[in-house]
Structures are given as structure tokens and as C-alpha cells.
# Entry
Amino acid sequence: METLKRLFRINISPLVWKVFRRHLIVFSRNWKVNISFNFFEPLLYLTALGIGLGAYVHPIEGVPYLNYLAPGLVASSAVFATAYECTYGTFIRMEFQKTFHAMVATPVSMDDVIAGEILYGVFKSVLYSLVILAVIFALGLVKSPWTLLIPCVMFVGGALFAILSIIWTGLVPNIESFNYYFSLVMTPLFLFSGVFFPLTGMSIIVQKIVWISPLYHLVNITRGMILGRVGISLVWDLIWMIVAVLILLPVPFYLMRRLMIR
Amino acid sequence: MDIVIAESLLKQYNGFTAVREVNFTIRDRECFGFLGPNGAGKTSLVKMIYGFSPVTSGKLTVFGMDVKTNIRDIKRLLGVVPQENNLDPDLKVLQNLLVYASYFGIDARLARERAEELLEFFGLKEKAGEIVESLSGGMKRRLVIARALINKPGLLILDEPTTGLDPQARHMVWQRLRLLKEQGVTLILTTHYMEEASQLCDRLVIMNLGEILVEGTPQKLVADYIDETSGQIVQEKKEQPATLEDVFLKLTGRKLQD
Ligand SMILES: Nc1ncnc2c1ncn2[C@@H]1O[C@H](COP(=O)(O)OP(=O)(O)OP(=O)(O)O)[C@@H](O)[C@H]1O
Ligand SMILES: [Mg+2]
# Structure
């Protein structure tokens, strides 16, 4: 009961924005490098799989493979950027740089610090989705003005992956464990969330399991919007993500408090 | 007015007792020292004062407010120099001060004014645009102290401010701290240098294994010690007057620095 109470007592103030601003200042110092690295990987996938492999693949859901793949990569690149930030990035700030300790000696609370980390994670998803979107737009792969709403969707997707990543960081706070996060959580999500192929071809059990993948819902929405195939099912995907964010939101605060405050 | 009041203050980490029901008060505008060897509980104690570490039991008020309920308001009035430097390596020297100021909600223009003053005061003006990693140990320490002053705190908490500095750098820090005290800042200082304690502190306590052994002015502690041990030690140490180190040695049978 006490634990439950502590879980929901989140002590946040407007100083969150100052914490977030600190991250933006650091980001702005080398944003060019950051962004160009993030360009690179999705471009590799687009050329190797979209164009290379795509030449041998039938159109999927009525569109050429390149068009099918590109929206998936927008979603996956975005959440990977967030996942890196909220594992390695968060851990380095917390453990090696003692940035959290410095912040909480000011009126900033530990919860402000964690909220700042989540916001920074959201920022990364939104920004990198825009970067990849710009690329696929230039390649003529964007088919619908619904695409303009993608940053809003990435806000939710980014928040969800920031929360998941900080939960991992709070549960297994050491730098080696992040390898496992990426090989056991992020890579399976990347491969089996409909980024590369539709799951309708797989058994019904697999399709049921995939329903719990947060990336699956994000990919559905992103693809629907970019290809202009917007229907009621996308609303359900969005609701799924919002509900997941709301349910999980207190957990990273609780775990990080437990870790840092002794 | 008393700035800090601790009553039966206890700190435990999973059952391990680091601070054992200590009592002390720290007065306005004094420099109060916690002197003790490694593991005495100095850091645990000051971390409770600046709200990093929750009080296990007992009462702790700072500026008349309870740390359990008003920590944000308390922290507004504090400057903290932690034992471990935690400057932001992702930011330049001046930026470190400006960003830190923003955590207090200090507006950007005022922050810049103060930051430049402080860099001047601590002899770091030429380093304003450098990365933190390029500073020497002594410069980093001075920058941490400068950072702690950005909000013009009424109480400055210094956890071993000069550990690891060479004598010259140490004297420079001491001189700055004396100036701050003259300006009316209350200081809390932890140290295991008895010289530091006797140079700076108006009153101090000697701690060991989580307990406060004695409390008083540096002079009184030394004088009491000589009285008690009468002629014998005085004779032994004819050319060398007794120091806090001797007091500590007598109380605990241990040396301050190992
Ligand atoms: N987070 C923690 N978890 C468990 N034990 C701790 C923690 N922090 C400190 N301790 C223990 O509490 C005791 C007091 O530690 P503290 O750091 O307060 O000593 P100190 O007087 O500051 O020593 P030093 O001169 O080495 O800085 C030590 O035995 C230490 O091992
Ligand atoms: Mg200490």
C-alpha cells in the first residue's frame, strides 16, 4: 500500500523545462553530427532492402516494397533514437557525470529530472522522425498530407519508448545491460512489428502476440498516414499507445527515485 | 537565529547506521565544521541538510523549515559543494554557471552578470569559454564553489572543499571562503584536515562512526584537551602546541587522515 502511494506521488514543477532546456543546449552543440549519423542507418536500409531487395519483392498491400518499407523506417529510427538516449544517455548523465546529483541540489526535484529525461526522449523521436520524413519526402515516397500529423503521433510513441527505456535503466542500471535491452527488446520489436513485412502472413498466434508490441501500433499509424490510408483502426492504435503511456508513466519515476534516493 | 537545527538525527542505509541520533545547531553567519575521518558520516549528514538523502528519523530544520516537507523552498536558499565534483562536462565553463542558475529560475541577464562576477572572484575569467575537462583539479573545485554561489545562498554547504588540492590552491579557497563569511554567508564545512577546521571554523564538532564526540570552538577543544592531560603532554610537545589532531587522536585513538 505504501509502495502504491509512493508510486503515484510524483513531484513535478515547471523547472522540468529548465532541465529539458539543458539537454537542448547540449544537443545544439553538436546537432549536425548527431543528425547525420541518424540519417545514415535508415538510408542504408532504404537502399539495401527497399531498392535492392525490393526489386525482387511483389508489391505489398498494393504498393511497391520501397513505399511499404519507408514509413516503417520512419517509426523505427525515431524510437531507436529515443531508446539510445534514455538508456546510454540517461545512464551516463546519472552515473558517470553525476548530472542528476548536481540538479537535485537546486530547487529541481528528482521527478523533475526524470520528466526532463522523458521529454528529451520525446524530442529525439519527434526530431528524427522529421529528418527521415524529409528524406523520404525528397525521394517522392510521401503520398498524403496526413503525414503532417506524424510529429504528434511521434510525441506519443517517443514518450512510450522513453518510458520503457528508463524503466530498463532503472531496473538494470549498468552499461552492459543495455546490450541486452537492444538485442532482447528493441531488435525483436524492430523485426516483428510490421516494419519490413505485414504480419498477416504469419500465424494467428504471432499476430496476437504482436498486438502487445508498441512499435507495431506506431508503424501502423505512420504507414497509414504517409500512404494516405487512414481509417478507424489507426485511432485504436493511437488509443492503445496513449493508454500504455498513461499506465506506465509512474513507473520510471518510482524506479529512478528508488535507485537515486538513499 | 539558528539556521540549522538537528534533533536526534538518524541516518540508516538498509539498516546500516551512518549517523547516530546527533544533535547540533548552526547559527546565523558562523562557519560550522564537521571534522572526522573517512566513513565518519559527514557526507551522509550534509546530504540530509540539502535534501539529497532522506532523514531516517529525528528532526531537521533548515531556515526554520522542515526538510521533510519544504525541501524545495530550502534548496532555493542553499549553495551546495558536493564531495565529488559534478560539473556538467557537456557544457562550457560559463554555461555551467548559466544553466545551473536556470535551475533556480534566475533570469538570464542576472545570471550572466553574476556568473561573470563569480568567475572573476574565483580567478576563472579566462576560462569562461573552455570545456570543463580542460580545467585543473583546483580550478574545477573553484568552479564548483562558484556555481554554488550563483543563487546568492544564505547557507553554503561545503563537503571537503579542498581535498585533493595542493597547499597553494587550498589557501586560495580558504581566503575566498573567509571573504564570503565576511559578506554574511553561513558556512557548513566538512573536512578531515584539522588545519582547515581551525583556520575557518568558529565552532566545530568532531565525528567518528556516526557520532558527535565533542563540540566547541577550535581553541576551546584544544585548551580542554591540554587541561585534562595536564603537564605530561605539554612537556612532551614543548615546541609543538597541541592541535585538533591531538584532540581527535585522544578521543578516538585514530588519526584523522589515513
Ligand atoms: N548510499 C550508501 N549506501 C550504503 N552505505 C552508505 C551510503 N553512503 C554512505 N554509506 C556508509 O555510511 C558511512 C558514512 O559514510 P559517509 O560518506 O557519510 O562518510 P564521510 O564522513 O563523508 O567519509 P569520507 O571522509 O570518506 O567522505 C560509511 O560507512 C559508508 O560506507
Ligand atoms: Mg564524505
Summary: Residues B 42-43, 83, 159 surround magnesium ion (ligand 2) (CB under 6 Å). The interface with chain B takes residues 13, 15, 18-19, 21-22, 25-26, 29, 97-99, 101-109, 261-262 of chain A (CB under 8 Å). Chain A has one domain: 2-261.
